[in-house]
Amino acid sequence: MTLPRFGRLLVLTLGCIAYLLVAGEALYRFTDGYRFDVAKLEPRPRTDAAPLDDHAAERALVEETRIDHKIDPDLFFSPPAMLDKPANPEIAERAKINTDMYGEENFIWNDAYLRNLPPETWLRKQKTDIVFAFRSYDGSTHPKFRLYPDTQSTLGTTNHFGWFSPDTTVDKPGDTIRIAIIGDSTAQNTIALYLQGFLNAWSTRSGARYRFEVLNAARQGLLQQDFIRILKYEVAPVTPDYVIFTEAPTILYQKGKLWTASPAIDTARPLPRRPFWLVREAHRLLKAPARWSALAERILKALDDTLPGEPEREPSKPAVELNPPLNMAGPPTLDDARTSPFFRSYLDDLDQLTATSADAHIIPIFTTDRACAYPGMAVSRALNPFLFGSINGPDYWPLTYRQMQRVLRFNNQVITRWAALKGVNLIDVEAMTPKKPELCRDLVHDIPLGQHLRAWLMFQKLARIIKADAAAGRVPRPGSGRSNHPVLDEPIYRLDRLDVLAGLKAPSSN
């Protein structure tokens, strides 16, 4: 190649590179919202158009999740039941002082639970002197706590029983069908308000004489033994016709008990997607230019997997194997499930919940559990700022999305098999819920639209159950005739925090 020809080729190559750099810079300044009239990266003023309020996305979601085509999909837009309370000044002040307790500063604690706290308890960091408490219903530590009644708080709004549902009387009005919800944090939200709104709109349209009340006694962090006491002592006295038991798949909280890894595998450390040296050198070279170059900033964000709105795939994880019986190829029998201590205890608790419901003449309804992790799922941090960190964080690491789904499938197959053998109603929430990560806040919790949708799915199944039971004369059942609640109308005790701490057992020296 002659020197002049080489020179022309070099100039052409450099010109192409310069063109691509300038074009790339202009493109990313435009798409990422930066100004063109200054060298340093500065955001352009926003000029967002007013959004169209036509519920198009919601309508598409409703059509996708129609279970009962006899139900008008417009019922999805029925107004929810209302629960509006002013904030109790004392509760608001306690929340303001205790900023790192996530609402626990305003729990009403079971006094038996307070007597059995571990030495290194959350109570040591509470900055207010008073602890709220109630007398244990039966001497046990269950339920661990109730929610403070008649107030707005950081946890939501509660009625005079401390439930997330409209105020009601202990005695049930005539021609009223009451439905109680007992669950954990996955139901400690607006689900009961939406469900009551759907049911009453449906009743009005169908010309039924019944009205509906949905009582939400769910609260965060509780388990089956707590549910049993809530059912027996809190819910049964208000004579609901149905009780819905719903919760997160607690099997996924068993962490290291779920899997086994080779001793040579470091299960605590993520596997890098890219060579460390590449990321290190890119940051060394482009950190300064990224202050004024949108293209350089884009390159670094791509290497760090932090591009705004860019879907993130599951990171590489150490290889682990699920433990028996979770690794079974086919659907488990209950005998298979009972080989696991977790499921043996879980099934015993389900039996006890059913027996307690029967003793109180309440029709039990159970749900399958849902987890927002699917093979091949991509998560946008812009739409789901918590989801990616939740499912790839220390609580579930190093389980892959596929393994999480396999554990969930085993869990739900056990629930389904148990419900079929016992002849109890089951609402298969997992099967009906669309696999859309944008509806999830984290692995087990919904965003508000997801809560609305979950109530809608439950309503469609519940409507069929109610129609059959009403036609057979099983509902509504008569009220109790009570004017006062035997435990929830008892006074709230105010204990000195230091006195409670002084009564704790000293830590073991072993």
Low-confidence stretches: 49-53
Q: Can you give the mean pLDDT? A: 89
CATH classification class of the domain at 56-85 and 163-259 and 321-487: Alpha Beta
Tell me the CATH architecture of the domain at 56-85 and 163-259 and 321-487: 3-Layer(aba) Sandwich
- Overall shape: it is globular
Number of strands: 15
CATH topology category name of the domain at 56-85 and 163-259 and 321-487: Rossmann fold
Structure classification: alpha/beta
Largest sheet: 5 strands, parallel
Individual helix count:
15
Give the secondary structure arrangement, pairings included.
Elements: H1 3-31, H2 56-64, H3 89-97, E1 107-110, H4 111-114, E2 130-134, E3 145-147, E4 151-153, E5 156-158, E6 176-183, H5 191-206, E7 211-216, H6 224-235, E8 242-246, E9 259-260, H7 276-286, H8 294-304, E10 311-312, E11 321-322, H9 334-337, H10 341-359, E12 363-367, E13 379-380, H11 387-391, H12 401-422, E14 425-427, H13 429-432, H14 448-471, E15 493-496, H15 497-502
Parallel strand pairs: 1-2, 6-7, 6-8, 8-12, 12-14
Antiparallel strand pairs: 1-3, 2-15, 4-5, 9-11, 10-13
Helix pairs in contact: 1-8, 5-14, 6-10, 7-8
Defining key terms:
single chain, 5-stranded parallel β-sheet, 15 helices, 15 strands, 11% strand
Describe the structure.
- β6 (176-183), α5 (191-206) and β7 form a beta-alpha-beta unit.
- α5 (191-206) crosses α14 (448-471) and α7 runs antiparallel to α8 (294-304).
- The chain starts with a helix and ends in an 8-residue tail after the last helix.
- The chain is globular, with a radius of gyration of 28 Å.
- The protein has a domain at 56-85 and 163-259 and 321-487: Rossmann fold (3-Layer(aba) Sandwich).
- The protein has 510 residues and is an alpha/beta fold.
- It has 15 helices and 15 strands.
- The strands form 5 sheets. Strands 7-6-8-12-14 form a 5-stranded parallel beta sheet, with helices on both faces. Strands 3-1-2-15 form a 4-stranded mixed beta sheet. Strands 4-5 form a two-stranded antiparallel sheet.
- The protein has helices at 3-31, 56-64, 89-97, 111-114, 191-206, 224-235, 276-286, 294-304, 334-337, 341-359, 387-391, 401-422, 429-432, 448-471, 497-502, and strands spanning 107-110, 130-134, 145-147, 151-153, 156-158, 176-183, 211-216, 242-246, 259-260, 311-312, 321-322, 363-367, 379-380, 425-427, 493-496.
